[in-house]
Structure formats: structure tokens, C-alpha cells
Specification:
The chain is an alpha/beta fold. 30% of the residues lie in helices and 16% in strands.
């Protein structure tokens, strides 16, 4: 499962439910915070734009959970990626 992570709250919720989770955010400060804060958990945090899915292996995710970021994306980019 991939999540848009910000400070990792939803990422941790899915992790606590047993999911293998990768958190992703464009803000490197948020990524570093999550890496430090959740260092004892097996959660990977990756910096980058959520519209650039090429760096994620195809077929790796059952779910991509994105909350809060979609309103910031331009409609053209969003329609191309979905």
C-alpha cells in the first residue's frame, strides 16, 4: 500500500492494521520527520511527487491512498495519471 504521508498518521494506521506500507510526500522535511519518528517500525518513506509513479514498480500496490493532495493537482495532470 502506498500513502501520501505528510506526518505519517494514516501511514501508521494502515501499518498497525497489518499492511506493508510505503509513505510518500513531496516535502523532504516531512519525509525526514517520518523516518525519524517511525524509525522503529518497518515503514519506508520516499520523497517525491505522487504523480511520478514510474519510480514505483508496476503491480506492487493493492491500494494507493491519497488524502489531502488531490486538490493541489492540476486537472490535466490528474486525469493523465488516473
Amino acid at each position: 500500500m502506498a500513502t501520501e504521508c505528510r506526518l505519517g498518521e494514516y501511514t501508521e494506521v494502515f501499518y498497525s492494521m497489518g499492511a506493508k506500507v510505503i509513505g510518500r510526500d513531496i516535502n523532504i522535511k516531512c519525509i525526514q520527520f517520518c523516518r525519524d519518528f517511525y524509525k522503529d517500525k518497518r515503514i519506508e518513506f520516499i520523497g517525491g511527487n505522487i504523480t511520478n509513479l514510474e519510480m514505483m514498480p508496476q503491480g506492487q500496490f493493492d491500494i494507493i491512498f491519497c488524502i489531502g493532495a488531490l486538490p493541489y493537482l492540476r486537472k490535466k495532470i490528474l486525469s493523465e495519471k488516473i
